[in-house]
Design a protein that fits this description.
four-stranded antiparallel sheet; alpha+beta; single chain
Length: 99
């Protein structure tokens, strides 16, 4: 496994209707590094966003989709998604405010 730093773990937030509805329960969805484990994701969220405390992390590996361009077939890259549940006394994550 590669030497992954905490700032390399979280790649982007995922903003969909389902993820926005889950924010009412303090669940935030991120696209994360494919080799990151739950402990790395928990540490990265707590270090990157001040005042947050993670209760649990759910992860899922997403296979690449088959795409076609003319006669050629290919696959998109595999990704990993993490749903982070914050504790009740935790501060909210500011990047999702105002969306």
């Amino acid at each position: 496994m590669a030497n992954i730093q905490y700032y390399d773990v979280i790649l982007a937030p995922i903003v969909t209707e389902k993820s926005m509805a889950a924010m009412a329960e303090k669940k935030y969805t991120f696209r994360v590094h494919p080799e990151a484990n739950k402990t790395m994701i928990k540490d990265a969220v707590e270090k990157m966003f001040a005042g947050t405390k993670v209760a649990k992390v759910n992860t899922m590996n997403l296979n690449g989709k088959t795409r076609r361009r003319g006669m050629t077939y290919g696959k998109t890259a595999k990704t990993k998604k993490a749903i982070v549940q914050l504790t009740e006394d935790s501060a909210e994550i500011e990047i999702f405010q105002g969306l």
